[in-house]
Structures are given as structure tokens and as C-alpha cells.
Amino acid sequence: MASGIAIDAECKGLYDKFQTGEKVFRCIAFRVSPDMKSVIPDEKDWQIRKEVRVSPREDTKNALTVLCNQLVSGDENSIAQPRWILFNFEFETAVDKRQTDKSIFIKWCPETSTIKNRMVFTTSTKGLIDNLNLSATNVQADTIDEIKEIIGNLESGNLK
Q1: pTM for this one?
Q2: For burial by CB atoms within 10 Å, which of 17, 147, 149, 152 has the most?
């Protein structure tokens, strides 16, 4: 339980598909339910599947574009909704040109979120991390530019 709100069992099932077993998703997202009583997986269009017909690096860039577009499009409530986003970045290291991947846990809390949404989001983060047994690197992002910087930081070795 996180800040008095439950973590929906579907969160763990979705995370398992992302991290182990099938590994079919490039990106998955969670949010606080509309009644603010639980953390739930976000709608299906927020769960971005890996595209096997393109290279992993190209798929990473395409999925990042889709994610950034989703974060800034839609109605005011959707845009202002804080989200926990797990994104699997595939990239080439700048130092030794090695192909690798890393999952990043992005805490997206835009400035347009209400104070209540921000408080519930912030106090529920640890509960979600504990429930998923998450070991990914955590990054706080409030703007699209901060999300776009992640790939560059990974490639240069500035984000571990």
C-alpha cells in the first residue's frame, strides 16, 4: 500500500511482461486511478510494444517520440496527470560503441498537475517501487526536454 492507496495487481502483471518473460513492451506506464484509491496501469495506448521490424535503437527513438507526443496531447486532465513510466532504452555507448540496453523508471509529474495529484503521486512512488520490486534507475522529469535528455545521458555514460 502506498500513501493509503493500493497498488492494483495488474501493475505487477504488466511489469512482469515488461521485465521478464515476454519482454514485449518498450514502455509501460502507471497512474493513480480517477478515484485516487489505487495505482493502476495506464490505458493501453500508453503501453508501447517493441517493434521487431526495425533495429532496437530505431525502435527506442520511435517509442520515445510516441511517448513524448502522448505526454503533451489530449485533454487538460490527461496532460496534467502524473505518471510512472518504465522505458527500456536500447543505445550505443559513446566510449566503446557497445550495444546495450537499460530500463529507466521515469517519474513524470508535470507542473500543471494539481497539488493533490502531486502529493498522492509523490507519496505513492515508494509503494509502487516496492510492489514491483523495481531496481531500475529513477529519473524525475517534469518536461519533455528532460525525457529526451535521458538517451543522450545514457549514451555518454552520465546516467548509470
Answers
A1: 0.89
A2: 147
